[in-house]
Design a protein that fits this description.
single chain; mainly alpha; minor pseudopilin epsh fold; 3-stranded antiparallel sheet; 3 strands; binds manganese (II) ion
Length: about 210
């Protein structure tokens, strides 16, 4: 059975960037719903004992009738679990990841501009990611609850997520309403660069 991860911060911790009410509903209602649906859909199947990463790698082998439902809810569970950990105040981009971002995007300023533009141009629900793919860093988006770990059978760019941002309206509507740009900009105040560096190091070691 998959369970809701406990956050290591309070719902109001990310104020004023992400508001307390949104964080609470997002975690206890939206994320919990993906987990409940996932557990129900895996009941009495050989996949019921699989952990999230193994399930992601086996998605294409799940029967057509169940695949999309599991894809959406497994993706929802993975993406939100990833998201909570990539949020923290007062961390700084440094080390190998900083060097690699400069190498791939010319400067951090340019990386941020690209990230914001691509997020703004993503139509509808989905996610934006910085991923390590084929030894390069790249920014990509996925629809619905897809993610780059699902592989090229499902997404255009497969790879290891370094950072990610939820682009569903449920992630920002209470505080930002239709102002998606301010929501995306606010994310840059609370990216957990320590966790991002850890994700990057793991992607280099293929130790995932
Ligand atoms: Mn969400």
């Amino acid at each position: 059975m998959h369970t809701l991860p406990i956050l290591n911060y309070k719902y109001d911790y990310l104020e004023p960037y992400f508001d307390s009410k949104t964080m609470e509903i997002h975690h206890t209602k939206h994320h919990q719903a993906y987990i409940n649906n996932l557990n129900n859909s895996l009941l009495n199947t050989k996949f019921s004992s699989y952990k999230v990463n193994k399930l992601l790698s086996k998605l294409e082998y799940i029967s057509d009738t169940k695949r999309d439902y599991i894809r959406n809810n497994l993706g929802g569970h993975f993406n939100h679990s990833f998201f909570w950990k990539i949020l923290k105040k007062n961390t700084f981009l440094k080390g190998k990841l900083k060097i690699s971002i400069k190498k791939n995007f010319l400067s951090f300023k340019n990386f941020k501009k690209c990230f914001i533009n691509i997020a703004m141009n993503h139509f509808g629900s989905g996610w934006i990611w910085l991923i390590q793919s084929k030894k390069k860093l790249l920014i990509t988006t996925t629809i619905n609850q897809d993610n780059p770990r699902m592989g090229n059978y499902f997404v255009k760019d497969s790879g290891i997520p370094i950072i990610g941002l939820d682009l569903w309206e449920h992630a920002y509507y209470l505080k930002y309403q239709n102002n998606k740009l301010d929501y995306i900009k606010s994310y840059f105040n609370i990216i957990n660069w320590d966790q991002a560096s850890l994700n990057f190091e793991k992607s280099l070691l293929c130790n995932i």
